[in-house]
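FORM 7B - TANDEM STRUCTURE REPORT

SECTION 1: FIRST PROTEIN
SEQUENCE AND TOKENS:
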Amino acid sequence: MIRKSLSILFLILSVLTLYAEKTNYLYSFNSDLNEGISQLSVMTIYQDSRGYLWFATKNGLNRFNGKEYKIYHREDGNEQSLSNNSVTSITEDQEGYLWVGTNNGLNRIDLNTNEIKRYNLETNGLVANSISTVYTDRSGCLWVGTWEGLNRYNREGDHFEYIPIEDDTERAMIVTLLEDSSGRFWIGTRNKGLLLCDHQMNLISQFTSESKNMPLNNNNITSIYEDDKKQIWVGCKNSGLNKINLRDNEVTSYTNLNSGLSNNSVRCIIEWQGKLLIGTFDGIFDLDKATERIVKVAGYDDINKSLSHYSVYCFCVDRDNTLWVGT
């Protein structure tokens, strides 16, 4: 389990820890934490129910206990290993299984025994082996997004079912999923913009760059986040940030042309210490929701307080309210 004293002291090269004191940020970085990690491109960070931190990289999965790493790799001829080393997403279900998506198949890790079971297109009903996101909703249902559409896990049958969202003439390339506070699902796609569905995955609305009333900056969605005011924030690839206010039927756009963003490639969004943090291809920005002022708070070239790399991929707030940033 992660110890509190360790979780705020140690960082890997691809992870930054930030602390807020009033409006100031303090940066903590310890390069020793790169020792033993399988690869330095951290795509996803997840903390499980036991307190372990999991780092998804392009060359393996890493479990961190506060002192050292346990690395999960694909091993040729070993069906009890990961199906692929390029890890894309992580979630834990209500039974304590860790689900790990990769570029070639899905993996279920029993956290009690460390046994791994593989799921794929050929044997378990997945619509594709390219897993982009795995998500557990509040009811305990497991959803899997792929480049060929959406799957839902059938726990009794231990297999996956394809869930069509609209016509199948061109299947949605799923990037990210979010269940909001009202129980609706927001589905970010690479080719069809943002889809809003009810809990049965019936389409309610579709937001695209071509929408007449509430257009987005771009149809390639990278991230979705709901803040404490129930506003939906949407990151677009190379096109900035959008705020969706369903109450007033408004979409507000933030780009490098009309805000403090210096880069329009928004990768991740999170709320922390009362600020909305935005991870981009050029560091971290925070947005004051009262004033909507955006300022850069962490970059690659900041003297003595820089990120390990300018390209930010993911955020994770752990149980001690420490923010971890994957680059």
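SECTION 2: SECOND PROTEIN
SEQUENCE AND TOKENS:
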Amino acid sequence: MKTFKVILMTAGLATTGMVMANIPVNHAAIAPASITTVKQALTAKDNTPIKVQGQVVKSLGDEKYQFRDKTGSITVDVDDELWQGRPISPNTTVTLIGEVDIDYKPLKRVEIDVEQVQF
């Protein structure tokens, strides 16, 4: 009988570990945003945390989109799975959380690398 109790206890701990392992960790890893507009993003340093609200006005292909807020527009890089299968239009307001991504080759290009989409 004692053996049976030990097996149940071990099974319970294993189940608890599996549940905890399924908790999304990417939400906790996102730093607080210090940039809140496209205008600020265009002059920010690389990897600066950002949280902007506006509209995705068109697809540019290869998971890149044109994003617009009240201060301007910028290219954003959004992995397909972040859309969660929800359709959006140029009138849909979304919040994008991520970081500024600057590339200097061949010319300086500023984008937002999106880590989370809020509807």
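SECTION 3: OBSERVATIONS ON SECOND PROTEIN
Helices lie at 2-21, 26-29, 38-41.
The longest helix spans residues 2-21.

SECTION 4: SIGNATURE
Preparer initials: ____
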